[in-house]
Design goal:
Blueprint lengths: L5 E4 L16 H9 L2 E4 L2 H10 L10 E4 L6 H12 L4 E4 L11 H10 L3 E4 L5 H9 L6 E6 L4 H18 L2 E5 L5 H11 L5 E6 L7 E6 H5 L11 E6 L8
Parallel strand pairs: 1-4, 1-5, 2-3, 2-4, 6-7
Antiparallel strand pairs: 7-10, 8-9, 8-10
Helix pairs in contact: 3-4, 6-7
């Protein structure tokens, strides 16, 4: 019988600050150091992390296969072939937990379909950390990844999500490319109802970590936070008595 490898889902630090390594447990660090084959979002970023955690093998001896955003079935099959050969794989994204808002989910799905063992390791998640710290509804929440980039489409999506939040009392959360954070924050303040509670969670676990929840009305009357180039999670919850803005 041909040996089968295991697909390990490996969270990575949310920040490249030295202290962010402390968010990785000894168990997770051991798992990184036991593996020689990795599927990664960006090889350069993965190599830098593996050097920082003192992987016992020379980086040149590690196999790092990039996973394209729109991976074809042929590309997924080539990665599954490593598992069929008995090699275990570590799947990691550039930040936080893999397979959330990145293409890793397709590989995980393909591994399940092929009958391989999938093991999620615990580690930092901006979604859960931000939700914990927001004070918003934590039993009903939805993560939407990225919103549309064009302003009109983005505003229309925000109105739609606010209606959903109000109808179901459900926290809505999403992220943005760091250099577009300020444009998204401005849209949130312009589009959402004044009573909607909005949380901004910047640089979670990093040296510039800053988390604040306030009504949209309050956000409109204070200087905007510095979000440029910082990874940021946005969350909001609309009051059931509010009207769309």
């Amino acid at each position: 019988m041909t040996p089968h490898g295991t697909l390990y889902l490996l969270p990575v630090p949310l920040s490249e600050a030295p202290e962010a390594l402390l968010t990785l447990s000894p168990r997770l660090l051991d798992r990184f150091r036991q593996l020689s084959f990795f599927v990664v979002e960006t090889p350069k970023t993965a190599r830098r992390l593996l050097k920082r955690i003192d992987h016992p093998l020379p980086i040149a001896q590690l196999t790092m296969s990039p996973l394209p955003q729109e991976a074809t079935m042929a590309q997924l099959e080539s990665l599954l072939a490593l598992l069929r050969q008995g090699h275990s794989l570590g799947l990691l994204s550039d930040a936080g937990c893999p397979a959330i808002a990145d293409p890793g989910a397709r590989l995980v799905n393909a591994a399940h379909a092929a009958g391989f063992r999938v093991v999620p390791e615990t580690g930092p998640s901006s979604l859960l950390l931000g939700l914990m710290a927001s004070g918003l509804e934590g039993q009903r929440f939805t993560f939407h990844g990225y919103l549309p980039v064009p302003e009109m489409a983005r505003n229309a999506r925000l109105i739609e999500l606010e209606k959903r939040s109000r109808a179901h009392q459900e926290t809505q959360s999403f992220i943005e490319t760091p250099y577009r954070n300020e444009a998204l924050f401005a849209s949130l303040c312009r589009t959402l109802h004044p009573t909607t509670q909005l949380c901004v969670a910047r640089d979670l676990t990093g040296p510039q970590e800053w988390i604040r929840t306030a009504s949209v009305s309050e956000w409109r009357h204070r200087p905007p936070p510095d979000l440029h180039h910082f990874p940021t999670l946005f969350l909001f919850l609309a009051h059931s008595s509010g009207r769309s803005g």
